[in-house]
Batch of 3 targets.
Target 1
Amino acid sequence: MDGQGATADPQLQQFIEIESQKQRFQQLVHQMTEVCWEKCMDKPGPKLDSKTEVCFVNCVQRFIDTSQFILNRLEQTQRSRGSFSETMSD
């Protein structure tokens, strides 16, 4: 070995991060599908009626809005912790 671990390879790190993002996205889609299906689908049929379709659209939109809100809040929390720890180290 050359003394550098696999974590030192920036291409590998980028690949791992991209694959992790893909996995998180797939999990989110699966979770959203499951939640909205349970909430909106009374009985499966050959076609969606307009009430069910509207329910799915609203459910997905709320799910996306909620996920975005949580991500934004986590980013704010991380930034405030970062600035707090920088202040404490000064």
Note: Helices lie at 10-40, 50-89.
Target 2
Amino acid sequence: MANKGPAFGMSRHVQDKIDSKYDSELEQILVEWISRQCGSGVAKPEAGKMGFQAWLKDGCVLSELINSLFTGEKPVKKIQSSTAAFKQMEQISQFLNASEKYGVTKTDMFQTVDLWEGKDLAAVQRTLSALGSLAFTKDEGTYNGDPNWFFKKSMENKRDFSDDQLKAGKNVIGLQMGSNKGASQEGMSYGRSRQIL
């Protein structure tokens, strides 16, 4: 990757806005969860945004994390630390593909350069939060964290109604349509009554 100098003008304003979305409290929760989830093999990073990025940048911690959430066959087969940029980015891409297979939606995913170049670490936090919420919601026994860290996602609650129940429902006037009680024109008069002589 090419080294980029400081941004100016509108580019600087946009980057500052992106940087302001980074949450330090969420960083602490994510670090604690990833450390518990991956076990003693993963050391904790230095506090702060740059420490968080450096910790995740090579993709090894992320790969360990996603592998710990799967039972049976692991999605990331080979986890190896490398100093080569393309290898690190490939490892991050493997994590993103495995996360998508696990159920994280495309809209919750970060781009590889968001983490590797540190362009949008708030997007990285959103992806990890979505992954944590999904792991907590699935309740497969692989989630190793505090239940208060992530919210439980809503699940499908499918209902099957019989034909009789469906027919009975057609006869009910829903409250969204208003009420038919008291709707008459009795007692209404407009203007003077007609005088017939």
Note: The chain has a mean pLDDT of 79.
Target 3
Amino acid sequence: MWMNIFSRFARPALQRSTSVMACHALRVCCRTGKTAGPLSSSLTQVQLRGHQTLGSASASASLPLTHHSVRHVRALDEERLMEVEWEDGGQSLYPFTWLRDNCQCPMCTLESAQARKLLLADLDIHTGVDVVEVTNDNKVSIVWPDQHTSVFDAEWLKKRCFSPAARQAMQEELFLNERYYWDSKLRIPTADYQEVLHDDQAALAWLLALRRVGIVYLKGAPAEQGQVARLAERIGYLRLTFYGHTWQVQDKYMANNVAYTSGKLSLHTDYPALHFAPGVQFLHCVTQAVEGGESEVVDGFHMAEQLQREDPEAFRTLTSLPVDFTDTGTDYCDFMLQSKKCIIDLDPEGRVVRINYNNATRNSVLDLPLHQVQPFYRALKTYVNIMNRPENVVTYSMQPGDLVTFDNWRLLHGRRSYISRPDRLRHLEGAYLDWDEVMSRLRILRSSVNDNV
């Protein structure tokens, strides 16, 4: 069987809860193992086919297996905190206000929706407590001054501990923020299209790799239209844009997009002209060109890191100066888009979270003071030159039935020019999804796979 050893990548994320079958869900062929920042203690290193190691998510990205028991609990009235002492010797502190706000009783929480019913207008943010104690079944019970009672499961409290380590672990479990950076030595993770459609463990493996590495190749799809829509149904639903639910990448007369020509496409992200660009892209090869048409990808986050290291001023420019993008035409309907974005988006902690760059739709309108124009061009040119270095670009050729899935917020993709014949016209079908839908399905699959073991 051509598929093998996904377990080295996904098994830690499932806390060793997958079956042997899941260990064959994805072939991971990454040679580089650099992550976005230092590896945390929750990441393990695994050897892949004799190449360099690749970090793999463990407890921070999965449901906990260990059982936590409460040894003792007490109220610190002056600090307005509840202190929990755990059987393993650790301690956690919880603010009174937060505990009252998150009471799990039916009066305060709609269990069927896991949604809060308690109104903030009715929350006493200066509340004290009357009684805190450990129940016989190892839950924490709190009686409030109005005699309302809240009962908290020990595991629920432990996961919501306010320590920096616990908060980081919870955020990693929820969002899988760790990334594996790569360059031209990447061997793209590959999975079987039919297994992803029909096996939950294979689908989870696919989505974990998509999140961590940013690109996964699927083989074995029928070489006919409709496969990107089938794959999207595995997650939820497609992202409708002005180019339709799906779109056909072909050489078209009077093309409304440079992708619909046979010329070279420079490295770019799709749709920066939208204020909220699609997060994930699917491309399925129905027919390949007679000559040329090879695909190219680079890790935009890794390139941004290189830019910051080599030219900090250029990095500051591209993370602070907004640029105008535009897109005009007619397809699913007529459109005239306009947006303003920085080329590199950062989160509040300074981590790169999105690349917005498409040279074709970068507007001639440049809303910058005169003295910032030349520095902007210098910074952008420097970033593009880093991306185009041969040691950073992965090149591959899609064959009919191949389907590539990738992170449109992170990867920049391009295409070499190609030649077709009338009886063999190059044809790819594409589609978009948003990361919200993808991450939702990943969390559901992760929970389901763990529950079924």
Note: DSSP finds eleven helices and 29 strands in the chain.
